[in-house]
Specification:
Layout lengths: L12 H14 L12 H8 L3 H13 L3 E4 L3 E4 L19 H9 L21 E2 L12 H15 L13 H13 L9 E4 L1 H13 L5 E6 L3 H9 L3 E8 L2 E2 L4 H8 L3 E4 L13 H14 L3 E4 L24 E6 L11 E4 L4 H13 L4 H12 L2 H27 L5 E2 L7 E5 L6 H10 L2 E2 L1 E2 L13 E5 L5 H16 L1
């Protein structure tokens, strides 16, 4: 155990040792029943006499923080409550550099506590707010076996730092997977990232600077809004309808505000579930080419189509270098994998690679190899097929529950894919207040304000996730939401 002691201090050494252990116990750093080092061993580690350590332990024992058992050692006792250690010390108690870091450093914005609701709900909570599919459906056992096979096959190579661009076989697999979806690219144009959120961050850091204007859909993914605001970008919302971004409204924005990028979720948008039409995709690419503005296409759940015809990605109709395509395996496999990727043509790829390298050196080599093996044997496609079937039924259950339990005046468009149902509440309802009441009754929902560049526009909207909960949970959750709206 490394305990900092100051031999030049006026405080006796045993007081310093006792003080360090006291703070560790009361602060929760040493759990109850933890066995402390023997007095002989700690004395040797610290270069003090054994009696010094014995005196420190005796002081802690007198305060009821440790118990000494003959022949066994000294053990930490449970701490019931020490309010003076519950909160951080006041600002004035911290070093000056920490007090100065807020105005000087990079200040991340968060529209919601926690990452898009991920992992923020308790076990008894019905979570209609989260941003992923059903965690109970993630193929944990199959993936565990895949990891074991990868470790047996690759040994130490699997746990070394990898290529900053990504594991070469995975990049080849991604290129093949995209080709089957109509997007032809080469492995040399694929950069593997720590999920799609890191891909967006790398792109923003590479092609944008503080003060630049970026056009987004109104509403759009709140994680992207948080990122863009954190980087000091000026976020400009463009209007949408049931068919996605209104491209007819984009050109005046390009002429007036000269944005440096356009961000869109063209397939089953977060939060609306809208899908951009083929005509508007072509119009968007034509505008990007005409005004020399890159399009960032975030295709986070494009594979989850339940109805209608498949649409080609915007990148698939890119004449060359106009579109940066972003996607992820995290949403459909396991969020904790943090394996996503981006596809881009041209010299900007090398700068993205260098930005990626200085940020985290490389995405987890083991996770990349496991994903590549899992996708190659067909595990990913099989999981997608099963998920589409189940999520379609859950979507229909939620639609029926909304029609049954929510008051007249609640409207929505039936999403043809994705994870979400986007509600417009009756006039007079405030989604923030409704969300708070629902949460007090054990149901988590996402109020609409967090998805708009001008938050007040989202007051009458709400996003519900139909994929992450069972059909019975959806029924109970929407019923509780209805009660909250009437309360």
């Amino acid at each position: 155990m490394r305990i900092p002691i100051n031999r030049g201090s006026s405080d006796p050494l045993y007081v310093q040792i006792a003080g360090f252990l006291r703070q560790a116990i009361r602060g929760g750093n040493l759990d109850a029943k933890t066995r402390l080092p023997s007095s002989r061993r700690l004395a040797s580690d610290l270069g003090v006499t054994r009696i010094t350590v014995e005196n420190a332990y005796a002081e802690l024992e007198a305060e009821g923080l440790v118990a000494r058992r003959v022949g066994s050692g000294s053990y930490v006792l449970p701490v019931v409550s020490f309010p003076e250690f519950d909160d951080d010390p006041p600002d004035s108690g911290w070093p000056m550099w920490q007090q100065e870091v807020h105005p000087r450093g990079w200040n991340p914005c968060e529209s919601t506590p926690g990452p898009d609701g991920l992992g923020s709900c308790g076990h008894d909570m019905i979570d209609l707010a989260c941003g992923v599919g059903d965690s109970a459906r993630f193929p944990v056992d199959a993936f565990r076996k895949t990891i074991q096979k990868v470790l047996q096959r690759d040994g130490l190579e699997a746990v070394k730092y990898g290529d900053p661009r990504g594991y070469a076989p995975l990049r080849e697999t991604i290129a093949g997977l995209l080709a089957s979806q109509g997007l032809r690219t080469r492995p040399e144009n694929v950069l593997v990232t720590g999920g799609s959120q890191q891909a967006l961050a790398l792109i923003a850091l590479t092609i944008l600077a503080p003060g630049d204007v970026i056009v987004v859909e109104r509403p759009t993914y709140n994680g992207a809004l948080d990122l863009f605001r954190s980087l000091g970008l000026k976020v400009l919302g463009a209007p949408t309808d049931s068919e996605g971004l209104l491209t007819s409204e984009i050109e005046p924005l390009l002429q007036r505000h000269h944005p440096r990028a356009i961000y869109t979720v063209a397939n089953f948008a977060n939060p609306t579930g809208a899908c951009l039409t083929s005509r508007r995709r072509r119009e968007l690419v034509a505008l990007a080419e005409r005004y020399n503005v890159p399009v960032i296409e975030d295709d986070f759940v494009g594979d989850l189509r339940y109805d209608g015809k498949a649409q080609p990605s915007i990148k698939a109709i890119d004449p060359g270098g106009c579109v940066i395509y972003v996607s992820t395996f995290s949403k459909m496999l396991m969020p904790g994998l943090r394996v996503g990727f981006l596809v881009v043509d041209g010299p900007v790829f090398d700068k993205l690679r260098r930005v990626k390298r200085v940020h985290d050196l490389a995405t987890s080599n083991l996770n990349q190899r496991a994903v590549e093996a899992f996708v190659t044997v067909g595990g990913y496609e099989a999981h997608l097929r099963r998920s589409r079937h189940i999520y379609r039924r859950r979507r229909n259950t939620m639609i029926e529950a909304v029609d049954k339990h929510l008051p007249d005046g609640t409207t929505f468009a039936v999403p043809r894919g994705g994870l979400y149902l986007w509600l417009r509440l009756p006039d007079g309802e405030d989604s923030r207040a409704v969300a708070e009441k629902a949460l007090s009754r054990g149901v988590s929902v996402a109020h609409g304000c967090q998805f708009f560049d001008e938050e007040i526009e989202g007051v009458v909207y709400m996003r519900l996730n139909f994929a992450a909960s069972t059909r019975s949970q959806i029924e109970r959750g929407v019923k509780t939401l209805g009660i909250s709206m009437k309360a």
